[in-house]
Each structure stands twice: as structure tokens, then as C-alpha cells.
Specification:
Number of domains: 1
CATH topology: Small Protein B, Chain: A
Subcellular location: Cytoplasm
Family: Belongs to the SmpB family.
Distance between the termini: 34 Å
InterPro entries: SmpB (IPR023620), SsrA-bd_prot (IPR000037), SsrA-bd_prot_CS (IPR020081)
Order of helices and strands: EHEHEEEEEHEEH
Number of helices: 4
CATH superfamily: Small protein B
Oligomer: single chain
Protein name: SsrA-binding protein
Strand content: 25-35%
Keywords: Cytoplasm, RNA-binding
Helix content: 25-40%
Shape: globular
CATH class: Mainly Beta
Length: 152
């Protein structure tokens, strides 16, 4: 991602889902939303991407209202259209339909050119025992690091 600036991160996504592929998408925003993002007011932890009749939308993402936006302010949790190439959209739509996968936003960030981008993950849900296994390996890795640090 170069020297991009992360705005919001969905940290639970990799815990709740198996992420098979990552995709980058642009996002259609209004001016007060961009200003609010520059101030750091975003939450994508409960959001997902879904196909509506005319494209792919980021649903349930919360971008706080801009403090100085007065009457031109935006709706904080409106669905926002995601911008991708038609071929990519068709491929993703087929995988979501056929394989029953979900599109989960992983990070929301400014790229090198100052544009807001969303990193989407093509995800399959984890069962409870998978989540326990993930926790177990994470705890073991942490313990290994601790042991190496103290003994090595």
C-alpha cells in the first residue's frame, strides 16, 4: 500500500472470517465525508459490501458527521457506492452468489494520491471451533515470542 494513511481498520474480520482474497475499491463520497475521514471519524467494524441492482455498495459503515458541515452535512450511515472495474465486479458477484462468500471491508485508507480507498476481503465465515483454533495459535505465537525474548 505504499505510504498510505489508514483511517479505519476492521480488526475482527480476520478473526470472524477466512479471508481468501483482497481487493481494492474506490468509494463515492461527498465533501463532508472526506473532511470527517481526515479528522479520523470512521468505523467499519460492523459493515459489509453487498450487490444492489446497479453496483456494489458499502453498507453499515459509519462516517461521523463533519463538525463544521452545517446543513450540507451527510447521513453518517448511508450506503456508499464502491468503484471497481466491471470485470472485477462480475467475478466477485459470481463468487458471492455461487460460493456463498461475503465481502468484508478490512481497511479504509487514503492512498498515495490522497484518494479514499477500501480494502475488501472475500471471506467465508468461521465456525466457533475455527475461532478457538485461531485464538489458540495466536496465544501460542505470543507465548513463543515471550519465551524467546526471556531465554534467548
Amino acid at each position: 500500500m505504499g505510504n498510505s494513511k489508514t483511517i479505519a481498520e476492521n480488526r475482527k474480520a480476520r478473526y470472524n472470517y477466512f479471508i481468501t482474497e483482497d481487493f481494492e475499491a474506490g468509494i463515492m463520497l461527498v465533501g463532508t465525508e472526506v473532511k470527517s475521514l481526515r479528522a479520523g471519524g470512521a468505523n467499519i467494524s460492523e459493515s459489509y459490501a453487498s450487490f444492489e441492482n446497479d453496483g456494489l455498495y458499502l453498507v453499515n459503515a459509519h462516517i461521523a458527521e463533519y463538525d463544521y458541515g452545517n446543513r450540507f452535512n451527510h447521513d453518517p450511515s448511508r450506503p456508499r457506492k464502491l468503484l471497481m472495474h466491471k470485470r472485477e465486479l462480475a467475478r466477485l458477484h459470481a463468487q458471492v452468489q455461487r460460493a456463498g462468500k461475503t465481502l468484508v471491508p478490512l481497511t479504509l485508507y487514503f492512498n498515495d494520491k490522497g484518494k479514499v480507498k477500501v480494502k475488501l476481503g472475500l471471506a467465508a465465515g468461521k465456525k466457533q471451533h475455527d475461532k478457538r483454533a485461531t485464538e489458540k495459535t495466536r496465544d501460542w505465537d505470543r507465548e513463543k515470542q515471550r519465551l524467546l525474548k526471556n531465554n534467548g
